Amino acid sequence: MAATALRCLPMVAVVVLSLLLAGAAGAQLSSRFYDRKCPKLQSIVWSATAQAVATEPRMGASILRLFFHDCFVNGCDASILLDDTATFTGEKNAGPNANSVRGYDVIDAIKAQVEAACSGTVSCADIVALAARDSVNLLGGPTWTVQLGRRDALNASQSAANANLPGPGSSLDTLIAMFGDKGLSPRDMTALSGAHTIGQARCVTFRDRIYDDTNINATFAALRQQTCPQQSGGDGDGALAPIDVTTPDAFDNAYYENLASRQGLFHSDQELYSGGSQDVLVRVYRRNAGIFATDFAKAMVRMGNLMPSADTPTEIRLDCKKIN
């Protein structure tokens, strides 16, 4: 199916999911956790996120990425928001995060508004989870019920971020294994990879793909080479390109059409459609925007359920950048 036709498919606007959580985490999280303690929370987050995305659509992708990169390191505990201290080196400058994760200022601004409404009540981790959901929906994607009640970590680990986050050169086997380590299935992984239907990437992250890969559309490679020089170093490393060449600011299923046309920007993207186990699912998502939207929302709920270990000390931070 042509990309133009795909853009005409109706994306499921609302996918409301209320999944029961298992184990200890299930006893702690609830969609109504703040109903009495901070009843205006969700409207505050929505309004602030909407303002940020209206100012810069790319920010929606950045906040979504922030949530991914937080949850994949010791669970969804807002550890990624912590600045370095004398006692720990945090996650902000880890290899997968430095110069690619952004939106910290947006979360800080939302936190300030939430603190003004209900001081010392809402965790930074829950604010990130809500803002990620709202970012997707504001850009045309699905929505879902966010389970709430997370708490914030008292430390962060750069080494854990370097070890737990898959990179743009990852193989399919590596992706399946790394998501599997988090209790996420290959189907979850392929749906969550659809987050790359929005956002931009720096040349340094996809240079090898457009100059060295063979499983790539030649015209697409030439297009990206126009702004991403083969020689590393200098300003070229930071040159931005849309991850989804078709509809970069719309949360839709065009990402999977790109993969079928060998126009995945990252090697790790194209690995989902390279004669392997996920080819069939990519074709399903390519044909059916509704199935993708539903699977993405379900997978986001599952990823949002990733919790720190039971013995991890936590708190409700008053300032997302530092412990109380």
What does this molecule look like?
By secondary structure, this protein is mainly α. It has a domain at 189-295: Peroxidase, domain 2 (Orthogonal Bundle). The chain has 15 helices and four strands. It has helices spanning 3-7, 23-28, 41-55, 58-71, 104-117, 124-138, 158-164, 172-180, 186-192, 203-212, 218-225, 254-260, 267-270, 279-287, 289-304, and strands at residues 152-153, 200-202, 240-242, 314-315. The longest helix has 16 residues, at 289-304. The radius of gyration is 19 Å and the shape is globular. The chain starts with a helix and ends in a 9-residue tail after the last strand. The model is unreliable at 1-27 (pLDDT under 50).
Question: What is shown here, in short?
Answer:
The chain has 324 residues and is mainly α. It has 15 helices and 4 strands.
